[in-house]
Amino acid sequence: MINTERDIYWMKRAIELARKGKGRTSPNPAVGAVIVKNGKVIGEGWHRKAGKPHAEVGAIRSRKVSPKGSTIYVTLEPCNHHGKTPPCVEAIIEAGIKEVVIGSKDTSPKKGMKGAAKLRRAGLSVRTGVLKDECDRLIEDFIKHSTTGLPLVLLKTAITLDGKVATSSGDSKWISSKESRRYVHALRNEMDAVMIGVETVLADDPQLTVRHGRPRLNPLRVVVDSSLRISPDSQIIETAFEVPTIIATTRKAKIAQIMKLEKCGANVLVSPKGGGKVNLRWLLEELGRRDVMSVMLEGAGKLAGAAIKEKLVDRVMFFIAPKIVGGSHSAVTGFSVVKMADAWELANVEVRRSGVDVVIEGRIK
Protein backbone atom coordinates (compact mmCIF):
# COMPACT_ATOMS: atom_id res chain seq x y z
CA MET A 1 0.00 0.00 0.00
CA ILE A 2 1.00 3.63 -0.47
CA ASN A 3 1.17 5.66 2.70
CA THR A 4 -0.43 9.06 2.20
CA GLU A 5 1.04 12.15 3.87
CA ARG A 6 -2.03 12.22 6.09
CA ASP A 7 -1.52 8.62 7.21
CA ILE A 8 2.16 9.19 7.93
CA TYR A 9 1.43 12.35 9.89
CA TRP A 10 -1.12 10.76 12.20
CA MET A 11 0.80 7.50 12.62
CA LYS A 12 3.87 9.47 13.67
CA ARG A 13 1.75 11.04 16.39
CA ALA A 14 0.58 7.57 17.47
CA ILE A 15 4.22 6.46 17.67
CA GLU A 16 5.06 9.48 19.84
CA LEU A 17 2.29 8.49 22.21
CA ALA A 18 3.39 4.84 22.27
CA ARG A 19 6.91 5.83 23.32
CA LYS A 20 5.47 7.30 26.52
CA GLY A 21 4.71 3.75 27.61
CA LYS A 22 8.13 2.24 26.85
CA GLY A 23 9.57 0.62 29.95
CA ARG A 24 6.21 0.66 31.72
CA THR A 25 3.93 -1.84 30.00
CA SER A 26 5.69 -5.19 30.45
CA PRO A 27 4.65 -7.87 29.61
CA ASN A 28 2.46 -5.96 27.16
CA PRO A 29 3.71 -3.96 24.17
CA ALA A 30 3.88 -0.17 24.06
CA VAL A 31 1.04 1.05 21.83
CA GLY A 32 -0.28 4.47 20.82
CA ALA A 33 -3.58 5.50 19.21
CA VAL A 34 -5.03 8.65 17.68
CA ILE A 35 -8.67 9.18 16.65
CA VAL A 36 -9.18 11.66 13.80
CA LYS A 37 -12.48 13.10 12.59
CA ASN A 38 -12.86 15.70 9.85
CA GLY A 39 -9.10 16.23 9.85
CA LYS A 40 -8.88 16.94 13.59
CA VAL A 41 -7.77 14.89 16.58
CA ILE A 42 -10.70 14.06 18.85
CA GLY A 43 -8.98 11.45 21.02
CA GLU A 44 -5.54 10.17 21.97
CA GLY A 45 -4.27 7.36 24.15
CA TRP A 46 -1.38 5.06 24.93
CA HIS A 47 -0.98 1.92 26.98
CA ARG A 48 0.36 3.12 30.33
CA LYS A 49 0.73 -0.09 32.32
CA ALA A 50 -0.22 -3.77 32.20
CA GLY A 51 -3.77 -4.14 33.49
CA LYS A 52 -4.66 -0.56 32.57
CA PRO A 53 -6.76 0.34 29.49
CA HIS A 54 -5.10 -0.26 26.15
CA ALA A 55 -4.26 2.62 23.84
CA GLU A 56 -7.41 2.34 21.74
CA VAL A 57 -9.70 2.37 24.76
CA GLY A 58 -7.80 5.27 26.26
CA ALA A 59 -8.21 7.24 23.05
CA ILE A 60 -11.95 6.48 22.88
CA ARG A 61 -12.46 7.54 26.50
CA SER A 62 -10.51 10.78 26.01
CA ARG A 63 -12.68 12.15 23.19
CA LYS A 64 -15.18 14.94 23.84
CA VAL A 65 -17.21 14.48 20.68
CA SER A 66 -18.81 11.42 19.13
CA PRO A 67 -16.27 9.09 17.44
CA LYS A 68 -18.87 7.84 14.95
CA GLY A 69 -17.51 7.96 11.42
CA SER A 70 -13.96 8.67 12.56
CA THR A 71 -10.61 7.03 11.79
CA ILE A 72 -8.35 5.55 14.45
CA TYR A 73 -4.60 5.26 13.88
CA VAL A 74 -3.00 2.61 16.07
CA THR A 75 0.62 1.43 16.09
CA LEU A 76 -0.28 -2.25 16.66
CA GLU A 77 -3.17 -4.39 15.49
CA PRO A 78 -5.96 -4.11 18.09
CA CYS A 79 -6.26 -7.12 20.40
CA ASN A 80 -9.08 -9.60 20.01
CA HIS A 81 -9.05 -11.49 23.30
CA HIS A 82 -10.11 -11.19 26.91
CA GLY A 83 -7.20 -10.71 29.32
CA LYS A 84 -7.01 -8.25 32.19
CA THR A 85 -8.97 -5.92 29.90
CA PRO A 86 -11.70 -6.58 27.27
CA PRO A 87 -10.84 -6.85 23.54
CA CYS A 88 -10.01 -3.52 21.93
CA VAL A 89 -11.74 -4.53 18.69
CA GLU A 90 -15.08 -4.59 20.51
CA ALA A 91 -14.53 -1.10 21.92
CA ILE A 92 -13.67 0.20 18.44
CA ILE A 93 -16.76 -1.37 16.87
CA GLU A 94 -19.08 -0.16 19.64
CA ALA A 95 -17.69 3.38 19.33
CA GLY A 96 -18.85 3.60 15.72
CA ILE A 97 -15.39 4.20 14.29
CA LYS A 98 -15.49 3.56 10.54
CA GLU A 99 -11.81 3.10 9.65
CA VAL A 100 -8.80 1.56 11.40
CA VAL A 101 -5.26 2.28 10.20
CA ILE A 102 -2.65 -0.11 11.65
CA GLY A 103 1.12 0.10 11.78
CA SER A 104 2.26 -3.38 12.89
CA LYS A 105 0.45 -6.68 12.57
CA ASP A 106 0.33 -8.70 15.79
CA THR A 107 2.58 -11.68 15.02
CA SER A 108 3.07 -12.79 18.62
CA PRO A 109 1.89 -16.23 19.75
CA LYS A 110 -0.32 -14.56 22.34
CA LYS A 111 -4.07 -14.45 21.78
CA GLY A 112 -4.22 -10.94 20.40
CA MET A 113 -4.15 -11.92 16.73
CA LYS A 114 -6.91 -11.67 14.11
CA GLY A 115 -8.12 -8.32 15.37
CA ALA A 116 -8.01 -6.85 11.87
CA ALA A 117 -10.08 -9.73 10.50
CA LYS A 118 -12.82 -9.22 13.10
CA LEU A 119 -12.93 -5.50 12.36
CA ARG A 120 -13.37 -6.21 8.65
CA ARG A 121 -16.15 -8.70 9.35
CA ALA A 122 -17.89 -5.97 11.33
CA GLY A 123 -17.83 -3.76 8.23
CA LEU A 124 -14.97 -1.41 9.17
CA SER A 125 -12.35 -0.35 6.65
CA VAL A 126 -8.95 -1.63 7.76
CA ARG A 127 -5.57 -0.69 6.34
CA THR A 128 -2.25 -2.05 7.60
CA GLY A 129 1.46 -1.38 7.19
CA VAL A 130 1.56 2.41 7.68
CA LEU A 131 5.08 3.20 8.96
CA LYS A 132 5.43 -0.53 9.55
CA ASP A 133 9.20 -0.51 10.19
CA GLU A 134 8.94 2.24 12.81
CA CYS A 135 6.00 0.52 14.51
CA ASP A 136 7.73 -2.88 14.43
CA ARG A 137 10.76 -1.32 16.13
CA LEU A 138 8.50 -0.13 18.97
CA ILE A 139 7.49 -3.67 19.87
CA GLU A 140 10.60 -5.72 19.07
CA ASP A 141 11.09 -6.35 22.80
CA PHE A 142 7.53 -7.64 23.09
CA ILE A 143 7.94 -9.92 20.07
CA LYS A 144 11.26 -11.32 21.34
CA HIS A 145 9.85 -11.99 24.81
CA SER A 146 6.55 -13.44 23.64
CA THR A 147 8.20 -15.79 21.13
CA THR A 148 11.29 -16.94 23.08
CA GLY A 149 10.68 -16.07 26.72
CA LEU A 150 13.90 -14.05 26.63
CA PRO A 151 14.21 -10.27 26.85
CA LEU A 152 15.59 -8.20 24.01
CA VAL A 153 19.22 -7.37 24.83
CA LEU A 154 20.81 -4.08 23.79
CA LEU A 155 24.57 -3.82 24.30
CA LYS A 156 25.45 -0.18 24.96
CA THR A 157 28.97 1.04 25.46
CA ALA A 158 31.09 4.15 25.07
CA ILE A 159 34.50 3.85 23.44
CA THR A 160 37.32 6.09 22.29
CA LEU A 161 38.33 6.45 18.68
CA ASP A 162 40.87 3.65 19.18
CA GLY A 163 38.28 1.32 20.69
CA LYS A 164 39.12 1.65 24.39
CA VAL A 165 36.72 1.87 27.33
CA ALA A 166 39.21 3.23 29.87
CA THR A 167 42.73 4.59 30.24
CA SER A 168 45.67 2.47 31.40
CA SER A 169 44.76 3.32 35.03
CA GLY A 170 41.15 2.21 34.52
CA ASP A 171 39.71 5.73 34.48
CA SER A 172 36.61 6.02 32.28
CA LYS A 173 34.84 9.21 33.44
CA TRP A 174 33.94 10.46 31.05
CA ILE A 175 34.49 8.97 27.61
CA SER A 176 31.27 10.17 26.04
CA SER A 177 29.87 13.69 25.83
CA LYS A 178 27.28 15.25 28.13
CA GLU A 179 24.71 14.94 25.37
CA SER A 180 25.41 11.20 25.02
CA ARG A 181 25.14 10.62 28.75
CA ARG A 182 21.77 12.38 28.86
CA TYR A 183 20.61 10.22 25.96
CA VAL A 184 21.63 7.07 27.84
CA HIS A 185 19.48 8.17 30.79
CA ALA A 186 16.55 8.62 28.41
CA LEU A 187 17.26 5.17 27.01
CA ARG A 188 17.31 3.62 30.50
CA ASN A 189 13.92 5.24 30.94
CA GLU A 190 12.56 2.93 28.24
CA MET A 191 14.14 -0.33 29.44
CA ASP A 192 12.84 -2.88 31.90
CA ALA A 193 16.34 -3.67 33.22
CA VAL A 194 19.96 -2.55 33.03
CA MET A 195 22.80 -5.03 33.48
CA ILE A 196 26.49 -4.60 34.27
CA GLY A 197 29.39 -6.74 35.45
CA VAL A 198 30.93 -6.43 38.89
CA GLU A 199 34.11 -4.97 37.36
CA THR A 200 32.13 -1.87 36.41
CA VAL A 201 30.78 -1.62 39.95
CA LEU A 202 34.26 -1.87 41.45
CA ALA A 203 35.73 0.65 39.00
CA ASP A 204 32.95 3.26 38.81
CA ASP A 205 30.53 2.63 41.68
CA PRO A 206 27.53 3.63 39.49
CA GLN A 207 23.94 4.15 40.58
CA LEU A 208 22.35 2.87 37.35
CA THR A 209 19.33 5.08 37.89
CA VAL A 210 17.46 7.52 35.67
CA ARG A 211 18.48 11.04 36.57
CA HIS A 212 17.28 12.95 33.50
CA GLY A 213 14.03 13.11 31.59
CA ARG A 214 10.49 12.21 32.59
CA PRO A 215 9.99 10.77 36.09
CA ARG A 216 9.48 7.03 36.42
CA LEU A 217 10.32 4.03 38.50
CA ASN A 218 13.94 3.11 37.80
CA PRO A 219 14.54 -0.03 35.75
CA LEU A 220 15.55 -3.22 37.49
CA ARG A 221 19.32 -3.26 38.12
CA VAL A 222 21.18 -6.51 37.47
CA VAL A 223 24.81 -7.08 38.45
CA VAL A 224 26.70 -10.16 37.23
CA ASP A 225 29.12 -11.10 40.00
CA SER A 226 30.41 -14.68 39.97
CA SER A 227 32.34 -14.43 43.27
CA LEU A 228 30.12 -11.86 44.97
CA ARG A 229 32.76 -9.15 45.20
CA ILE A 230 30.28 -6.27 45.26
CA SER A 231 30.56 -4.21 48.43
CA PRO A 232 27.58 -3.56 50.72
CA ASP A 233 28.83 0.04 50.69
CA SER A 234 28.44 0.41 46.91
CA GLN A 235 25.80 2.86 45.70
CA ILE A 236 23.83 0.02 44.11
CA ILE A 237 23.52 -1.95 47.35
CA GLU A 238 22.98 1.13 49.50
CA THR A 239 19.90 1.97 47.38
CA ALA A 240 18.64 -1.60 46.90
CA PHE A 241 15.56 -1.01 49.04
CA GLU A 242 14.57 1.94 46.82
CA VAL A 243 15.53 0.51 43.42
CA PRO A 244 14.89 -3.18 42.59
CA THR A 245 18.26 -4.92 42.39
CA ILE A 246 19.36 -8.43 41.41
CA ILE A 247 22.87 -9.76 42.01
CA ALA A 248 23.55 -12.86 39.91
CA THR A 249 26.28 -15.06 41.31
CA THR A 250 27.49 -18.68 41.48
CA ARG A 251 27.95 -21.38 44.06
CA LYS A 252 31.37 -19.91 44.78
CA ALA A 253 29.66 -17.14 46.73
CA LYS A 254 29.74 -17.42 50.51
CA ILE A 255 26.40 -17.82 52.28
CA ALA A 256 27.28 -15.09 54.77
CA GLN A 257 27.87 -12.59 51.94
CA ILE A 258 24.60 -13.57 50.25
CA MET A 259 22.69 -13.01 53.48
CA LYS A 260 24.41 -9.65 54.03
CA LEU A 261 23.41 -8.40 50.58
CA GLU A 262 19.86 -9.67 50.91
CA LYS A 263 19.59 -7.93 54.27
CA CYS A 264 20.47 -4.72 52.40
CA GLY A 265 17.55 -5.25 50.02
CA ALA A 266 19.21 -7.00 47.07
CA ASN A 267 17.81 -10.17 45.54
CA VAL A 268 20.68 -12.64 45.10
CA LEU A 269 20.26 -15.32 42.43
CA VAL A 270 22.66 -18.27 42.32
CA SER A 271 23.36 -19.69 38.88
CA PRO A 272 22.74 -23.46 38.89
CA LYS A 273 25.31 -24.06 36.17
CA GLY A 274 28.07 -22.26 34.34
CA GLY A 275 31.39 -23.73 35.47
CA GLY A 276 32.16 -21.06 38.04
CA LYS A 277 30.66 -18.26 35.96
CA VAL A 278 27.12 -16.95 35.84
CA ASN A 279 25.26 -18.68 33.05
CA LEU A 280 23.98 -15.70 31.06
CA ARG A 281 21.29 -17.61 29.19
CA TRP A 282 19.91 -18.92 32.49
CA LEU A 283 19.96 -15.36 33.87
CA LEU A 284 18.08 -13.96 30.88
CA GLU A 285 15.56 -16.79 31.10
CA GLU A 286 15.04 -15.94 34.76
CA LEU A 287 14.54 -12.28 33.89
CA GLY A 288 12.08 -13.27 31.16
CA ARG A 289 10.07 -15.27 33.69
CA ARG A 290 9.84 -12.07 35.71
CA ASP A 291 8.29 -10.31 32.69
CA VAL A 292 11.44 -8.37 31.83
CA MET A 293 11.10 -7.71 28.09
CA SER A 294 14.17 -5.53 27.55
CA VAL A 295 17.67 -5.39 29.03
CA MET A 296 20.33 -2.79 28.36
CA LEU A 297 23.73 -4.35 28.89
CA GLU A 298 25.86 -1.39 29.92
CA GLY A 299 29.58 -1.87 29.89
CA ALA A 300 32.20 -3.78 28.03
CA GLY A 301 34.97 -6.32 28.47
CA LYS A 302 34.32 -9.96 29.34
CA LEU A 303 30.59 -9.61 30.00
CA ALA A 304 30.00 -7.98 26.62
CA GLY A 305 32.19 -10.59 24.93
CA ALA A 306 30.43 -13.50 26.63
CA ALA A 307 26.97 -12.18 25.72
CA ILE A 308 27.95 -11.72 22.07
CA LYS A 309 29.70 -15.08 21.88
CA GLU A 310 26.65 -16.86 23.30
CA LYS A 311 24.43 -15.07 20.75
CA LEU A 312 22.38 -13.34 23.44
CA VAL A 313 22.76 -9.78 22.14
CA ASP A 314 20.12 -8.51 19.72
CA ARG A 315 21.24 -4.94 19.15
CA VAL A 316 24.37 -2.90 19.82
CA MET A 317 24.82 0.83 20.35
CA PHE A 318 28.34 2.20 20.45
CA PHE A 319 29.06 5.82 21.37
CA ILE A 320 32.38 6.67 19.76
CA ALA A 321 34.16 9.67 21.28
CA PRO A 322 36.83 11.66 19.37
CA LYS A 323 39.55 10.70 21.86
CA ILE A 324 42.61 8.46 21.69
CA VAL A 325 44.01 6.87 24.87
CA GLY A 326 45.94 3.77 23.81
CA GLY A 327 46.33 0.89 26.26
CA SER A 328 44.62 -2.47 26.41
CA HIS A 329 41.13 -1.83 27.82
CA SER A 330 39.17 -3.00 24.79
CA ALA A 331 35.40 -2.80 24.48
CA VAL A 332 34.86 -6.53 23.88
CA THR A 333 37.10 -9.24 25.32
CA GLY A 334 36.93 -12.95 26.07
CA PHE A 335 36.87 -14.14 22.48
CA SER A 336 38.41 -13.32 19.13
CA VAL A 337 37.93 -14.35 15.53
CA VAL A 338 40.76 -15.57 13.32
CA LYS A 339 39.49 -14.32 9.98
CA MET A 340 37.73 -11.04 9.23
CA ALA A 341 35.12 -13.03 7.31
CA ASP A 342 34.07 -14.53 10.65
CA ALA A 343 33.51 -11.16 12.35
CA TRP A 344 30.14 -10.41 13.88
CA GLU A 345 28.34 -7.98 11.57
CA LEU A 346 25.46 -5.57 12.00
CA ALA A 347 22.34 -5.15 9.91
CA ASN A 348 20.03 -2.13 9.66
CA VAL A 349 22.89 0.13 10.73
CA GLU A 350 22.08 3.67 11.89
CA VAL A 351 24.74 6.37 12.28
CA ARG A 352 24.08 9.71 13.98
CA ARG A 353 25.73 12.44 16.02
CA SER A 354 25.37 12.96 19.77
CA GLY A 355 27.26 16.07 20.79
CA VAL A 356 30.80 15.48 19.54
CA ASP A 357 30.29 11.69 19.58
CA VAL A 358 29.26 9.39 16.76
CA VAL A 359 26.63 6.76 17.59
CA ILE A 360 26.52 3.52 15.62
CA GLU A 361 23.56 1.26 16.23
CA GLY A 362 22.39 -1.90 14.55
CA ARG A 363 21.08 -5.42 14.94
CA ILE A 364 23.56 -8.29 15.15
CA LYS A 365 23.08 -10.60 12.19
Describe the biggest sheet? Answer: 9 strands, mixed
As a whole number of angstroms, the C-alpha radius of gyration is 22 Å
Q: What best-fitting shape do the alpha-carbon axes yield? A: globular
Q: Mean pLDDT, as a whole number?
A: 91
Within the CATH hierarchy, at the fold level, what is the topology of the largest domain?
Dihydrofolate Reductase, subunit A
Strand content: 15-25%
Low-confidence runs of at least 5 consecutive residues: none
Instruction: Give the number of DSSP strands.
Output: 14
- Give the CATH level 1 class of the largest domain: Alpha Beta
Order of helices and strands: HEEHEHEHEHHEHEHEHEHEHEHEEE
CATH architectural label of the largest domain: 3-Layer(aba) Sandwich
Through-space gap between termini: 28 Å
The helix content, as a percent range, equals 25-40%
How many domains? The number is: 2
SS-derived structural category:
alpha/beta
